[in-house]
Write a structure and sequence with these properties.
It contains 4 helices and 9 strands; from the N terminus they run ββααβββββββαα. With about 160 residues, it is of the alpha+beta class. The radius of gyration is 15 Å and the shape is globular.
């Protein structure tokens, strides 16, 4: 795992072809099984991720969130099958407007032949404005989160 001032990343070799790993990542219904924190509960929008700009919503839970249960609206920012996928998490306001906090999740995949893929997961908070940094700590999870997520992804990709 590497930690920069405003991003953290981890890598793992997955025993599955890049196309299979990418398919798991592009399936919002798999995200709760990938998540290493237990915060991601269920995909609201279950359609596969197929284009930049696509919005997919996830039901979430965090004990320190004011409501406990909440919903994230994620906008796909990177979609380069089977090499990269990433999204910008945000929330839908009461008027239907989406607001994004500035942090991103990104997976980069490097094929290592027909049955292996090097996967790097990066959480980047470099675009988070000071107003959000006043009340949220970055990164908001412990050091084992990224490695745990990658292990879960490897299990899902190898099993399919």
């Amino acid at each position: 795992m590497t930690v920069d001032q405003e991003n953290v990343s981890a890598s793992l070799t997955v025993a599955a072809p890049a196309a299979r790993v990418f398919a798991v990542l592009a399936d919002p219904a798999a995200h709760s099984a990938i998540d290493g924190t237990g915060w991601v509960r269920e995909a609201v929008d279950r359609a596969p991720l197929t284009e930049v700009g696509q919005i997919f919503r996830m039901d979430m839970y965090h004990a320190n969130h004011p409501n406990g249960d909440y919903r994230m609206a994620n906008r796909v920012q990177v979609l380069d099958p089977p090499r990269a996928i990433g999204w910008l998490p945000g929330q839908e306001q009461g008027d239907g407007r989406l607001e994004f906090g500035g942090w991103t999740w990104r997976y980069d995949l490097v094929p290592l032949g027909p049955s292996g893929t090097e996967v790097t997961l990066t959480y980047d908070w470099s675009a988070v404005p000071p107003s959000i940094r006043e009340y949220l700590r970055f990164p908001p999870f412990g050091p084992d989160h990224l490695a745990g997520s990658l292990r879960h992804l490897a299990e899902l990709a190898a099993g399919g």
